[in-house]
């Protein structure tokens, strides 16, 4: 009985470790980062469209998430991670790394510039969305696979 319990516990431990290591995979991490940026843009979009009331703290938090995340994002594409975890990363990322990094850093800089003068109302958030959305779209056009 004790041996059976130990085997079950060891198996469970291996499963937990597998899940922990899977979380560290660059494909999983970068997908998580893109979801965070998408959530932040969703918050800003809701405010810009009038679906949510203007909230300076929410705007600041969203812009901070975008800026912080995009500074780290390009580092999640090491060689050998072109496939796996249902990635939508296009091969162009590894073919033109400097441009990919520049686009990510531009989005981070755009968000930082907006943080320096946080949009004060719904209209300001709408203008910010045009700036951020253009940068996002430009990168996705080149570096994201269409599925």
What does this structure look like?
With 147 residues, the protein is mostly helical. The protein contains six helices and no strands. It has helices at residues 2-24, 26-48, 56-72, 92-95, 97-116, 122-143. The radius of gyration is 19 Å and the shape is elongated.
Question: Which features does this protein show?
Answer:
147 residues; mainly alpha; elongated; disordered N terminus
Please give the CATH class. Mainly Alpha
What is the CATH fold-level name? Four Helix Bundle (Hemerythrin (Met), subunit A)
Intertermini distance = 50 Å
Major sheet characteristics: none
Number of helical elements: 6
Please state roughly what percent of the residues sit in beta strands, choosing from under 5%, 5-15%, 15-25%, 25-35%, 35-45% or over 45%. under 5%
Number of strands: 0
Shape: elongated
Helix content: over 70%
CA-atom Rg in angstroms: 19 Å
Q: Quote the average pLDDT.
A: 87
CATH superfamily: Cytochrome c/b562
Protein structure class = mainly alpha
Element string (H = helix, E = strand) = HHHHHH
Pick out the low-confidence regions.
3-22
CATH architecture: Up-down Bundle
Topology of this structure?
Elements (H helix, E strand, L loop, with lengths): L1 H23 L1 H23 L7 H17 L19 H4 L1 H20 L5 H22 L4
Helix pairs in contact: 2-3, 2-6, 3-5, 5-6
Question: Outline of this structure?
Answer:
By secondary structure, this protein is mainly α. It is 74% helix and 0% strand.
